[in-house]
Amino acid sequence: MAAKGTSLRQYALTRLALVVPMVLILLTLVFLLMRVAPGDPVSASLGGHAPPAVINQIKHKLGFDKPLYVQYVQYLGNVGRGNFGTAINPAQPVSEIIKVNGTATLELTLYAMIIAITVGVAIGLLAGRFRDTPVDSGGRLFGIIIYATPIFFLGLMAQLFFGVYLGWLPVSGRASPLTQATLTTHTNIYTIDAIIDRNWAALGDVLRHMILPAFTLGLVTAGVFIRLIRINVIRTMKDDYIEAARARGINERSVVYHHAFRNALVPVITIIGLQVALLLGGAVLTETTFNWPGIGHELLLYIENRDYAAVQGIIVVFALVVVAVSVVIDFVGAFIDPRIRY
Amino acid sequence: MAVPAETARIETRRSILPRVQRAVAPIREARGMQRTMLWVGAAITSAFVLMALLAPLVSPYHFDQYRSGGTRFPQLAAPSAQHLMGTTVTSYDVFSRVIWGAQTEIKVVLISLVMSLSIGVPLGLISGYFAGKLDRVLVLIMDAMLAFPFLLLAIVIAFLLSDKVGQGILTAAIAITVAYIPLYFRVIRNHVISIREESFVEAARAMGARPFTVIRKYVFFNVIQNVPPLATLNAADAILLLTALGFLGYGIQPTQGAEWGYDISRAVSDASSGIWWTGLFPGLAIVLLVTGLTLLGEGLNETINPVLRRRARTNVEFGPSSPSPVIETETEGP
Amino acid sequence: MTNEPVVSVRELRVYYGTKRGPVQAVDGVSLDIAAGEVVGLVGESGCGKSTLGRGILGLLPEGASSDGEVIYGGRNIVGMTPKELRRLRGPDLGLIFQEPMTRLNPLMRIEEHFKETLEQHEPSLGDKEIRRRSLETLGRMGIPPTRFSQYPHEFSGGMRQRIMIALAVVLQPKLLIADEPTTSLDVIVEAQILSILADLRRNFGTALLLITHNLGIVAESCDRVAVMYAGKIVEEGPARDVFIDPAHPYTRELLRSTISLETSELHSIPGAPPSLLDPPRGCRFHPRCPSAMWVCATTDPIEKRIDADRRVQCWLHGPEDRIPEGGTAELEREEIAVAEEA
User: Fold this and answer.
1) What are the boundaries of each domain within chain A?
2) DSSP state letters, C277-340
3) Domains of chain B: which residue ranges?
4) Distance in Å, alpha carbon of B12 to nearest chain A alpha carbon
5) Is residue A93 reached through a cis peptide bond, with omega within 30 degrees of 0 on the bond before it?
6) How far is Cα C118 from Cα C127, in angstroms, rounded to an integer?
């Protein structure tokens, strides 16, 4: 339908127009944060032992000797061109970090999200549907406790039990050294790479490495979803059209599945989008716990090395990802809910 | 419920008591699961608060004590009568560190709670009440901050402050505060905006009350009711955040206090050799305290939030159909 | 008009359990509705008329309990299992709500609402037949077929109410309960809806229970009227007769307080409807009744047939032999207050 197409496009344009100031503010915040930081980023990142001439040379190369507003404009220009800067120690462009480590994080968070949504939606819907029954109490308690469990603690216990005690699963890294050597990188998302090459042994190994980190991150995130979905189901079950459907003699099954659950899940989609920030924060912890070579792992390394340029670049990437995901989620929401489109 | 004339009169003199009573009434009336959550949560939370306050008395050793009576504690000893939860690689007593840890967590979270509330709430009140340009700018900035992963923001702040302030309780508290200000701002502002249009506020404005008088007397009390459940839930979150900072090495330094997250980070290397007690007990302490705070917060939320509140019900007993109406049929015809 | 009632309500009581005791929303009500008949149910807000309407369908909110008989097709609806009730709702008993804006599922097309309803109750119907019947019914309500696949938010309030009626009528129920169907609509739309409802009887022989607080509507469209006060039906009879010569003081006061062309000054009934938690002793209207007698404050009135098809619950109509000595003395205003305390 033509009418639907234009209105959806219009919606997309307005939504995107709102993104611009948001991104600008985020970039400015990051820029200011890194500039008000105490100390001199260059000498700090070189360990403070470099001769002044070398420091000045690097400063000049990076443009740190220019006035602040010039640096700011250059920085915006660079980000606009997709140039997120260059890390000093160890030296590599931030774009390379995104390509190698970012994909590792992407793979981890994707699997974690699948687990979180499956577990969260299932338990949340059931708890809301069977409100105040043992199902509800059990589901809620599970959600609360799993959310109260720090990712690194759950990860540690999983490592102890499944890795050390039972010896079933590997507890660290993305793949065993053998797989690392045999797997050719196409996308750097290992499961996909293994499928492309029909390297089933590698796929098995990669999946085995994925299980503990993905479940750890996914289950903790599911705790949030359970709470949100349950409340939404309870709210929706009180809506007028639910009563109207019952007055038409629609069976309880359809009332719950077609009317209550579908309506309860619409706002949840938006909320899941907001949880991406949480998921990325959780990814940093998961990566540290399981020695997963993701971007969060990398960020901590550069923080350790006091590499301001790298930290700034990586943080900008994080921020952009969060904003991008929220835009995509909004579009999905608009697609599902006919009311938003018009 | 009929308000006794006495109370009503006191209320006109702007006494705070009836307001508190009214605010607390739903808590007394809470039933079933709400009630259980509320009380279990309160019990767990107060147990930890007690533990924190009485740490010097309850704990067998000091948190950084590694010997007693001239003899060094064993390293990585399994739980025993001497060391209920075992010892760490540096011979610390795990049990003592779990107890002292409660003190550190609660101290930091309280400080950051007070700081983020005292910045976030007034900003939200002013921004929501006066609206306009200031509001738009603040909303944009706060939304941008909210879009950021909490943990990353806290890590970056801790990282930036660590050079100047040093790593410690204050740094950790500030890092957590910065992460939570936008949240309080957002909630308070949105509530103020909806309340601003209500008739009692408009009436006050129409009578010529000064803006700050209106905010103080009419808006503040309505808005502040949302804060206790929110603050409790955020305290739970803040503990997770603090332990995460500690785990990553940006939290409290081991010499300044026992911190559960830091202890778990030390336990990671023990895990590969099957040593579980150095990680398990501090971890369980986190899970328990955060669960307690969450139960308390959710319980409060459900009791206060009318959408989630369940009306207390009683079963209706029908007596015999009394009084059975006698239908007197009049003889036909007028 | 056949005399055989479609629905026969006997001594129905619906109480809402609260922690301060039961709210006696419907207290010992009897009412017959014959096939093809339009019965108006009038009364002030909160007198229990909506509860009575829902009680007939067994569609009561949580915490409500009912007792007595609602006989439909030889069976008592009170005490039916949810499954039996569900089968009756729709093809036998329909309900139209006061607020049409929120009664349609926002995520479902109008088409899907009809499909779901028809498939539920007539599973043998094919898609073509479903479409034909839905469009035919909608057409009667003045909704063009071109809008069949639109979403609820694309319709105005009046149109949504017509869709709701179509959704109820498409199953050709024997009795339709309309709970203030026009209250939230403007006057012109109200007239349209009322004429649609009047057509129902002509076209389908549907009996209608029209719940309203608007006496004008009753005078215009009802055969019979039942007047409800504080959970009881105080007067019932042919609409014309009741309006021309009201037997109960409450009916009289209610008629006086409606605005018509002859109205020269506004009249209102002094006082407020009583609390149904603790209704007044004796006649529930006696604290507000201009003709109250001593007996009214102490003894429940007895229902009396004052005509072949009229009944009233008021001591003014006797039976005299049941009134204690001196009971007919006028109840003084001060004494009313005392009686209320007692």
Assistant:
1) 2-89, 97-304
2) SSPPSSSTTGGG-TT-BHHHHHS---EEEEETTEEEE-GGG--GGGSPTTTTSBPPHHHHHHHH
3) 33-304
4) 37
5) no
6) 10
- Asked if B211 and B129 count as a contact pair (C-beta separation under 8 A), the reply is yes
Whole-prediction pTM:
0.79
Distance from CA of B120 to the nearest CA of C (A): 36
Is residue C74 less than 8 Å (CB to CB) from chain A?
Answer: no
If you search the block for the tokens 């915040």, which residue do you land on? A29
What does the pLDDT look like over A171-200, one tens digit per residue? 888 888 887 878 788 788 888 888 888 888
Tokens 């039942």, located at residue:
C226
Nearest neighbour of C67 by CB, restricted to B313, B318, B326: B318
**Is residue B30 helix, strand or coil?**
coil
Q: What kind of architecture, by CATH, is found in domain A97-304?
A: Orthogonal Bundle (1.10)
Structure tokens at A77: 């220009």
Enumerate the residues of chain B whose CB falls inside 8 A of the CB of residue A288: 247-248
Q: Residue A123 is which amino acid?
A: I
Check residue B15 and give its pLDDT: 55
CATH class of B33-304: mainly alpha
Cα–Cα distance, C102 to A240 (Å, whole number):
6
Assigned fold of C5-232: Rossmann fold (3.40.50)
Residue C341, C-beta contacts closer than 8 angstroms, at least 6 positions apart: none
- Give the list of residues 6+ apart from residue A103 with CB closer than 8 angstroms, or none: A187, A188, A189
From the list C49, C5, C36, C22, the residue with the least C-alpha distance to C234 is: C49
- Rounded distance between C-alpha atoms, residue B87 and residue A36, angstroms: 42
> For residue range A256-314, what is the model confidence (pLDDT) as tens digits?
888 888 888 887 777 777 777 788 888 999 999 998 999 988 888 888 777 777 888 88
Chain A residue with the nearest C-alpha to that of C173: A248
Query: Which residue, chain included where needed, has tokens 């949810």?
Result: C82
